[in-house]
Amino acid sequence: MARSRTGQSSSVPPNRREIEQTRTEAEDAQEFESLFGDSLRAWDAGIDPPPPHLLELEKLVVQHREETGRKLWRELSRLWLIGLLVIGVLFGLLQWNVLAFAVVQVAAIAAAAVFLFLTRKNKEAERRWTN
């Protein structure tokens, strides 16, 4: 007699029990297929969307490219406007007070150094975790 994992003895050897279990699983699968197979296939067919036509896909791609191009030009114009504003303010500050201009420049350099230090620190931590 073979012992099962629970410690109880059984008269069926493990291989035979596994064969019987796979037979019952196969029988269960066949019964499930006979009961629900047709309705499940019909349901799946109703869910699957039809593939889009090539003209619809081309129209979607062209539309996306146009929207992306407009967005990029808008962002580029904003960047130029902000840059011109910053340069104008800095030139005005230089004309008004050279000391104030120098203080702003030192503060900008210090802020950039702190930013680079903090971002480099995070990248080193990421490198340690990914290696």
* Mean pLDDT score: 83
Q: What is the percentage of strand-forming residues?
A: under 5%
Number of helices: 3
Shape, principal axes of CA atoms = elongated
- Return Rg in Å: 36 Å
Q: Helix and strand string, N-terminal first?
A: EEHHH
Which structural class should the secondary elements be placed in? mainly alpha
The largest beta-sheet arranges its strands as: 1-2
Query: The biggest beta sheet, please?
Result: 2 strands, antiparallel
The N- to C-terminal Cα distance equals: 53 Å
User: How many distinct beta strands?
Assistant: 2
> How helical, in percent, are the residues?
over 70%
| Unreliable sequence segments | none
Describe the overall structure.
By secondary structure, the protein is mostly helical. Among the domains are: 10-47; 98-131. It contains three helices and two strands, in the order ββααα. It has helices spanning 14-47, 54-96, 98-130, and strands at 2-3, 9-10. The protein has a two-stranded antiparallel sheet. A hairpin with a 5-residue loop joins β1 (2-3) and β2 (9-10). α2 (54-96) packs across α3 (98-130). The longest helix is centred in the middle third of the chain and has 43 residues, at 54-96. It starts with a strand and ends with a helix.
